Prior knowledge:
The protein is built from 12 helices and 8 strands. By secondary structure, it is of the alpha/beta class. Strands 3-2-1-4-7-6-8-5 form an 8-stranded mixed beta sheet, with helices on both faces. Strand 1 (6-13), helix 1 and strand 2 (36-44) form a beta-alpha-beta unit. The chain is globular, with a radius of gyration of 19 Å. It starts with 5 loop residues before the first strand and ends in a 23-residue tail after the last helix. The relative contact order is 0.16.
Amino acid sequence: MNKKPTVTIGIPAHNEEVNIANMLNSVISQEQKSFFLEKIIVALDGCTDNTESEAREFAKKYPIVELIDDGKRVGKRERLNQIYDLNQSNFIFTFDADIVLANGFVVEEMIKVFLNDEKACLVAADQIPVMTGNFIGKIIYYHHVLWDKVRMTVNEGDHIHNLHGGASGLRKELADSFRYPKEITSDAGFLYIMAYKQFGFRYAKAAVIFYRTPATLDDIRKQSARAIFSRQKELADYFGNWIYDLFEIPLKYKMKGVLMAAAEHPIFTLLTICLGVLIRIRPKEDRLIQKGMWHAASTTKIKL
């Protein structure tokens, strides 16, 4: 067992009482054929609900669970920095608290990528949306499906839009090489660029996680305000204007994705295109984003 590479899993969590137990159960159930799970760090970020008590009950049952609970709300960016600082394992994985790992082999599939490719320093899981069932929710769900069909085929998965930030694995060397600066609110965009400079990003299609899509226009506008395409300027200010090229998706991929989606769901595809235009033009302003925080989309917090 000691010869296996070691893994620490970090989970930043703000008011996730509905999903945190599910998330932790899906983590603790992971098969450990190619790695040894040393620690699970739950970084509580100023929770005002029962997230802390749910996580503490889990920690009583599983001693490898360690809680960070200082009572402050500092945002995901700073919690990720804390998790990286505490990591002593060969690999550090971070998962959002409101997702669920699809099966017992998600971490295993991501570890395989590292073990088979010594240049890989960052691996992203494949994120599958789960619909929240009303008419607006269906439009938003198919908006995510359409975007998935577009992004998945670009450059064999090596693309900035394939790192959502909800399920990532890093070599310790990469995690030790940087900390998210305060002027950056897109942790996923910053992380991708750090790995891209080493030609080290990989996309693990076989590692699947589930996440819930919003069910209201207000919530999808909240999400779009912090989306990676909305944070390009701050990344360009930090790294240089060359990073704008990383966000570009050639028209042929966009057309291919639209045609694939339209063949399956023509009406919803048209509606999702209209929705995409709307949220690009009118994202919801959220002043908390500049502090590395944001107002939660409440309809994504339904239990998965």
